[in-house]
Prior knowledge:
The complex is a heterodimer. Chain A is mainly α. Chain A has helices at residues 3-16, 26-29, 34-43, 46-71, 77-86, 114-150, 152-166, 170-187, 189-193, 196-212, 216-229, 233-240, 245-281, 293-302, 312-339. The radius of gyration of chain A is 25 Å and the shape is globular. The radius of gyration of chain B is 24 Å and the shape is flat.
Amino acid sequence: MSEETIDTLKPGVADQDGSPNAPVSSATQSGSSPAQRAWRRFKKNHPALLSAWYLALLLIVIVAWPVALKIIPATGPHGSAWAKAYAPEELSDAQFQSPSPQHWFGTDEHGRDVLSRVLYGAQISLLVGFVGASVSLVIGVLWGSIAGLAGGRTDSVMMRIVDVLYSLPSIIFVVVLITTLGQKLKQMPFVRHSPGIEHELRLMILFVGLGAISWLTMARIVRGQVLSLRTRQFVDASRTLGASPVRILFRHIIPNVFGVVIVYLTLTVPSIVLYESFLSFLGLGVQPPMASWGSLISEGVDQINPIRVYWWMIVFPGGVLVSTLLALNFLGDGLRDAWDVKGS
Amino acid sequence: MYFLRRLAYMIPLLLVISAITFWLVHLAPGNPFATERAPASPQIEHNLRAKYHADEPIWKQYVRYMGGLLHGDFGPSMKYRDHSVTDIIHQALPVSMLLGWLAFGFAMGVGLPVGFATAVRRGQWHDYLGSFLALLAVCIPGFVIAPLLVLGFAMKWKLLPVALWASPLHAVLPTIALGLYFAGKVARLFREGMLNTMQMEFVTAARAKGLGENTLLLRHAVRLAVLPVVSYAGPMLADLLTGSFVIEIIFQIPGLGVFFINSSLNNDYMLTVGLALLYAVLLIVLNLAVDFAYMILDPRVKYE
């Protein structure tokens, strides 16, 4: 090894020892990790904090409600009558009742409690949101980090593909995909044997379809991060020690883009929730008796007529949808500011 | 040169898209000739299949279809028997386009002033109120705001028509319902752009030289601050076209969205593929136009 290369290596070695002039180590000196500092910044952001509480509360209610409907009938005849009145799929004669102490959100055209249906619909909407976002996360992180790490021609081809996909009307393809596969499902022999499974399979199509159109921004951001990471000295060091690209990817790159990825995950969830409700509104998403916020709103819209106004069938499902989207966006923005992530 | 190359890229891209959609829609079971009424006799169905070449292998149908496209023929619609896909596009595209442009105008007309005002009065109550409203607008989907507008303005106060597409008054509610989301988005982007621009050195320099605040903001800062909005305009126009599905359905407007959703539910292969292709072409061309506008507005950008 020549004198020169040893010289250029020296600052790198000093850097690892925590030399004061290296910018990277300033974080460790103040005695807190980046995550701790981000958390401190996040706590000062009141809208984001409030949103986090709102979402936590919503999640608790969504989980507790079905449990309550299962447990309370065991307490006696009074309890089972109560559970029957609020069961989301229980038809009754109390049709189109406006909001009252019994039915906070009113009842729908079959006398079902709208609040109960909104809570059940929330399960589906949020499930699709989170799972779809996770699908987009896996594709986006892998695509972006492989492109960034490989560099050169591979990188430009992969990012070119992302550019092209950006310029396509993705929702059109999701509509075609979902209607085609949805019809195909009905024909499959095992679906005919147990029709219940069709709903689960439809949900799967939604997860994959919506995840598959939402990974583009994630891939771009991850690639940008990887490009700056891969020239860092700890990656060089690992490579010099003979680490394979796969090891570098999973051991060094992905853990380091994690913070950024979480931030964009929280921003992807509301957009997928929105997509799902859009599709369900059009009747392409979840099928009855399963409901999501989109299909509930669509039922409310079907009841618009000049004689009587059933505003609660639109206002309440819509209000819960909008407030959840708002909270998720506040939360995502708050996390982004706290982590100090620059946009793409 | 750059733009010519981008245009040339379009051709293989559209070939791939058309092949994929063509194959996808043919994957669906059932066929477009099945009706809810009494099933056609086997002989009639056989004749229909022969007429539409549905008995040929897919690749042959695809080649035939692409051959027709070269002559501007999108093929026949299989559900709307008396109309070709080209007819339907001729009828419905102008409606969707008009609605899209109106909503675009609404989004810009509301979004830009709000974004400007919130940026200039940063940290004051105007800013908090405006920014919150902008975020709220981004979180209200069209299918929530549209029925609420109908319930309020059309049903309760009877100011505007409930649905249909007949007079300028009919366009008011759909335009607002469709454009609101984008107005919020534009306001947020423009605020961000203004804030970034106002921190730049040329702004400080101009101010130091004694340039009036109004001239500075309106003539110099805006030109740079509007760039994020410009680059969003392409995807936005496309989203306005495709996002109008629900609005068209709620207000019963005879635009492309209704035809597209129905065609994919009815296995109307030709119509689905034709409309998907049309959307793709529109989107690509719009994006190209936006890049072009970007280059003119920002001399620092050079495409090679």
